[in-house]
Amino acid sequence: MLTAMVGIPSSPEPDSESPSGPRESRPPARIVLHAINGVGAGHLARQTALARHLRLRQPGLDPVILGSGPAVDDVCGEVPLIELPSMGRAGRYHGEPAHPDMLAAITAMTHAALAGLRPRVVVHDTLVWPTVERAASLVGARQAICLRPRRDLAELLARPDSPLRRMDFVFVPDDPTRNPQFSQQLEAAGIPAVWTGPVFRTAVAGAAETREKLGVSPEARLVVVMSGGGRGNGAEAREHFTCSLDALSRLAEPGLAVLLVLGPMFRSRVEIPTGFPHPLTVLRGSRELPDVLNAADLVICRGGYGSLHEATAGGARVLAVPAERNFDDQRARIERFATDTACELVESTIPEDLAVQIRRALKAGPVPSGATTLRHEALDQVGERLVHLSRQDGDVPQGLAEQFTYR
């Protein structure tokens, strides 16, 4: 909540050039990375990865994450953050619409958070929450967006109120060669974008250290089953866990160890097959998930952006089950990954069929090296652009203050 702002000093105004001498050293410029986190944790994980890179390699910036939902503290780790109530979760309470005053209160808290932090730049991730955009404009912040490829880009650009045209800087955490249509649509719309390559969290600990912490022997073949953060609190994730465990229970291979990562948003239950033949460990959180995936021999996951990049960054083989999403084509993403990584599309989740695919993947052995890596030079370019933006004042549109309350 907003009390978390205590102890985070406001970012001073940037120094100006003195006519009588050289510019004084500037203090780090505060930037806010906003992550919508009402359904999944993908936006939050990507903003966390970006914040870690900037904290390590860009001393001119002071990144703070602004997020909401149950995954914020679990995912962000050491990155400074402000946790707000989730507008999406407050919108429904036991099936009843939330009182307008509740939504107005969350809106006011968002404005108060940005007014207290006084960021020079606000970075959105793929989706722009109008409340945050308005609040950022009111404090004179420049605005940028980390725009993950989404299949509804044409419809978004066709909207007269499309926020993409109001952004001061657009960068895409992917490759244009993998997303030619998306690249062409941005170019046709006259929106210049920097393509950075993938942005995702990476392992900190070595595989041997992580296995020791998990109680998994070096000789065991570790299978990790996860559902990512997307819709991890509903029947979809429960079905994914059930099918995966059922398939694994049909394998008689010795030396398997299974790790089930529920994710911070999962609030349902998982049924373990009777007589499950392998050692099974269940983890709730995902703060150290990149370390876990780096220690795995096989990962069974969904086709989310973060899940696939983090899973394929180590030496594990990956079996990915696409999930239906409004703005994200997971099947197409998995098929692209299958062309240059050790990732396979799961065509059938029937336990008997999935067991055959798991057995084949285990027999294939580990991959020589991770195919997905961070491109630090490209992200350094993003950091330099953000520093440049932080030295500019944003324009406060007339009449914006009248939109302060949520109605």
UniProtKB/TrEMBL annotation:
Q: What is this protein called?
A: Glycosyltransferase
Residue numbers spanned by region Disordered: 1-27
In this protein, which residues make up the domain named Glycosyl transferase family 28 C-terminal?
279-363
Q: Where are the transmembrane segments?
A: none
SUPFAM superfamilies under this entry? Answer: UDP-Glycosyltransferase/glycogen phosphorylase
| Superkingdom as given in the UniProt entry | Bacteria
